[in-house]
Amino acid sequence: MTADVTTSSMEEENLRDLAALTGATPEELLRQHAAGDLPVPTEPAPPEAWAFLDGPEDLAATTEEHLRRWDGR
Questions:
Q1: CA dist list (Å): 2 to 15, 23, 32
Q2: I need a surface site. Which of 2, 33, 37, 64 has the fewest CB within 10 A?
């Protein structure tokens, strides 16, 4: 069976990013999306959606210190 699926450039970009993160191929994820099993955003996430990734403001400057504390050295 063959099917043609059209996606927006944002959907395509999101599917490629998700594939890179999960190890799946973009084609596998596209099949899931086309079947309705994998919703894919069609617009970029607002900046506040990434707030959970924020670390301390000085993270870049103090990474070594944080790692040493975590590693016990």
A1: 20, 24, 14
A2: 2
